[in-house]
Amino acid sequence: MNKLILALSLTGASAFVAPTTTSAPMTQVQETKADLVALQESLPGPPGYWDPLSLAGSTILSQWGLTTEEENIGWWRHAEIKHGRVAMAGFLGFVAQCTPLVSGEHGTLPYRGYVAGVTPQEQWDNIPLLAKLQIFIAIGMLESYGEGAGSPEGYVHYTKGGQPGYYPDIKGRVAGQIQLNLYDPFQFGFRSASPEAKARGLKAELLNGRAAMMGLFGLLSESSVPGSVPFLSKIEGFPHYSGNVMIPFEHDFSLFA
Fold first, then answer.
1. 206/89 same-domain check
2. Does 236 appear as a known binding residue?
3. Is 77 annotated as a binding residue?
4. Contacts of 41 by beta carbon, 8 Å cutoff, 6+ apart
């Protein structure tokens, strides 16, 4: 099982993770539905442009004059890129949690109540509530920075013409306590890449993010309903979970108990 999981992690790293090359926010971007069609048609593989619910078109808010088509499209584009990034991290995180290096015995316990040899979902259940809240607070801080909290220099919100998927530099924030940027933390020069390289990288990230969203839900589905994903069901010792991943605080408290 461990060898198979490790093999999956190696293929996942190459298949799902690409440098997230985004464009500088100084350039105003106002995408229309025609731009979305052109983008999708430029990507390899099916299904082409597909929007049966007309999400890229006018909405109730735009009909009321509260948003424009360009703002609506900017929001959807940024949301897809962001969810793809989270899914890539989640896929590799699930795989890593299945390896002895992470889920095995530790000389120093990672947290109070740590139990070795359990599934990734059980690892989450075992984390103390206060530690979970710290994780969510950290995520909220990163999310607020990504939305332009503090008005970083040159930042333009993605609904106002900014580049969808762009994440501003955060090094030096929180009175200097943050010492690395979330994007390109080791300064490999992704921001200074050519426009062509950035465009290729963003397309690769978009495809990898979509694949990762499907892959992550495949892992969670097989873990919750054995046999639901035939490929994964053939892996001996695949971790199964009897809880509900859609109730992340099920073991901490309940609003309906």
1. yes
2. no
3. no
4. 48, 49
